[in-house]
Amino acid sequence: MPFSARTAKEVHVIRRPDGPLSVDDFVIAERALPDLAPGEFLIANRYLSIDPVRRVFFAHGTAPLNGGLHSFAIGEVVESRHPDYAPGEIVGHYQGLRDLAVGRGEETRKIAAGEDPLEWHMGPLGVGGFFAYVGLIEVARARPGENVLVSSAAGSVGSLAVQLARLIGCRVVATAATDKLAWLRATAGVETVIDYKDADWRERLGAALPDGLDVYFDNVGGAQLDAALSLINPHGRVAVCGMVSAYDRATPFSEPAGAWTWRMMTSQVELKSYHVRDHQRLWPVFQRSVGDWLHSGAIRVETQVRDGLEAVPQAFVDLIAGKSLGKTVVRLS
Amino acid sequence: MPFSARTAKEVHVIRRPDGPLSVDDFVIAERALPDLAPGEFLIANRYLSIDPVRRVFFAHGTAPLNGGLHSFAIGEVVESRHPDYAPGEIVGHYQGLRDLAVGRGEETRKIAAGEDPLEWHMGPLGVGGFFAYVGLIEVARARPGENVLVSSAAGSVGSLAVQLARLIGCRVVATAATDKLAWLRATAGVETVIDYKDADWRERLGAALPDGLDVYFDNVGGAQLDAALSLINPHGRVAVCGMVSAYDRATPFSEPAGAWTWRMMTSQVELKSYHVRDHQRLWPVFQRSVGDWLHSGAIRVETQVRDGLEAVPQAFVDLIAGKSLGKTVVRLS
Questions:
Q1: Percent of chain B clearing pLDDT 70 (strictly above)
Q2: pLDDT surpasses 70 at B182
Q3: What pLDDT does B247 receive?
């Protein structure tokens, strides 16, 4: 029966997390979907993106309580009253954290996955991968021979940033938690990795960069941003992509993260935040370059796959706690 | 007698200032100049530039104790063994804070002052003016209709920055000390001026910028940089030109000045320091534009002229204490 009403299951936040995120901050709710109107199509989600930055929206009010959440997902069009979207097409969109979604074509991208594993389009060929590409290449303008530091380097964005920097010809230093250092060395090919949980991580970072830092790709903020700025060379560039050190705090919005000092004032330094929506013209070359590198094995990525909508809350908790290597996704059957 | 030995008088720093700068930190010393060697020329300085940032070099070791100081000056070539510099030519150079200097053509620019007052080439058409032009137009990319804040707006650089912003078509807000607000309103044509010595300056600044800040031209650092960052709009740009709030402190190099927060992380904001030496291609258009505006009266500037090398120490003390309007120079007869 085409265009019929259905029931969707959604992940809702039922209270503002206060302190570390808990699975009890979430419920799975059911919602009756109305019949498709002209211009709408029904998407059966296949993969949901679990992104640490959502923690801030859950806690601080831009995500609704007891309502549907904005988040990236990939799904298959199963019914359509939209002339440009036919059943069977695969689309990326932001009606995530639910099993069935109603699309209208806004903020929606068709995905021609071909032979690619669909997971790649959640990670290295998706929004997170594009943040790594744009941040390193367009915002920070990393060049061959430069010293590049990437923090949270074993995460979804960081693990691509370190490999892109290596492929550009940079000298790469990475920070990550203890259990991910081996992967960064052996699989991502990062020469120098530093455990940010070591008491003397800051001294180690300085020792690893005796001739300073040209580019810092920041996923963390806070003390690591501060340390990076203290090592920055003249004409150094900092691309600020994330601030995971602040996400689980009570007041992330005013968390100081790195002081601008005389050293920076006299060093022709750039510190920039950015969003990939301002750099869409790079999307095709990003897809081609990173796609080729993935197929050739020059870039290798990890995906943590969890199954079923019920797995979403624990996936967020584990990701924010720093327990996940690479990209975390939830797969729906 | 050509190429003859002479005695130069120089301003020396005799001790590292510790706390507020004092005239007792300086002496006037005499130094015998050797005969001119081939490739050298003798410059009789006419105007010496008094720049607040020198305070940091005096205190923290990059300026020698009991030796000649690096500083901008304009003088007349009086003898020459250099093929490109003839007696009578006017040159800008960095062998300042002395009456007679030996030039070799490095870091030297010939000045075709024509009908211009020579003081203009110390201020709005000199290095300070070029810092204002490059910072506002090239680094911060101020555009018509944008909200621009300039701190230390009645100083040498700031007083040009506010007028350039007004001429571009920006809405200009300026901060300065009490006794300079009237000049900024009446002569520089700044609509909204805020006294940074008022207890509630920060609230006033917020109230003056109800729709936020697109560009901040920073001469001050510290609390004013912090306040500006808290008001910055998405895609806002900050050009960091100076940090006068830190110059008279014991530890300017590590003085925190403005915290990078979540708000900035999510706002596609740029914070940049710069040096005009990286933007020399703009020098001719800067000379032409600002020269035209000065001649037409569209830009108006103040110069505080003090006479005689002996006036240099007090000129520095007064400038750092915030007592001077516009550009401070010392004139030698």
A1: 96
A2: yes
A3: 79
According to the 3-state scheme, what is the secondary structure of A222-280? HHHHHHHHHHEEEEEEEEECCCHHHHCCCCHHHCCCCECCHHHHCCCCEEEECCHHHHH
- Stretch B2-19: mean pLDDT: 86
Q: Which two tokens stand for residue B280?
A: 């020399």
C-alpha distance from B278 to closest chain A C-alpha (Å): 9
The tens digit of pLDDT for each residue in B133-180 reads 999 999 999 999 999 999 999 999 999 999 999 999 999 999 999 999
The size of chain B, in residues, is: 333
Provide the greatest CA pair distance for chain A. Answer: 69
Decide if B268 touches A, using CB distance below 8 A. Answer: yes
Q: Choose among B262, B1, B59, B186: nearest CA to A62.
A: B262
Crossing angle of helices B201-208 and B222-231, in 10° steps, is 30
Give pLDDT, residue A254.
Answer: 59
What 3-state class would DSSP assign to B157? helix
CA–CA dist A50, A76 (Å, integer): 19
Question: What is the reported pLDDT for B59?
Answer: 86
- Count of C-beta atoms within a 10 Å radius of residue B122: 30
CB contact under 8 A, A273 and B268: yes
Q: Say if B56 is an interface residue toward chain A (CB within 8 Å).
A: yes
Give the whole-angstrom CA distance, residue B90 versus residue B75.
Answer: 6
CA distance A182 to chain B (A): 30
Judged by CB atoms closer than 8 Å, whether chains meet at B260 and A265 is answered as: no
Sign of the torsion formed by the C-alpha atoms of B164, B224, B175 and B122: negative
Which among B56, B221, B262 has CB closest to A255? B262
**Residue with the larger pLDDT of the pair A259 and A127:** A127
Look at A260 and B271 and tell me if their CB atoms are within 8 Å.
yes
| ipTM reported for the complex, 2 dp | 0.84
Indicate the average pLDDT of chain B: 92
pLDDT in tens, A185-209: 999 999 999 999 999 999 999 999 9
Judged by a CB distance cut-off of 8 A, whether residue B275 touches chain A is yes
The 8-class DSSP code of residue B35 comes to P
Q: Which residues are CB-contacts of A23 (< 8 A; sequence separation ≥ 6)?
A: A313, A314, A317
Helices and strands (H, E) in chain B, number of each type: 10, 15
Give A177→chain B minimum CA distance, Å.
23
Question: In Å, what is the CA distance from A155 to each residue of A112, A124, B43?
Answer: 25, 11, 61
Distance, CA of B75 to CA of B95 (rounded, Å):
10
Could you tell me the pTM of the whole model?
0.90
B254/A268 CB distance under 8 A: no
Q: Which residue from B56, B242, B270 is facing A270, i.e. has the nearest CB?
A: B270
Which of the four pLDDT bands, split at 50, 70 and 90, describes residue B203? very high
> Which among A133, A149, A123 is positioned nearest to A324, based on CA atoms?
A123
Paired tokens of B253: 């190099």
Residue numbers of B between 174 and 233 with CB closer than 8 Å to A: 221, 225
The pLDDT of residue A252 is 61
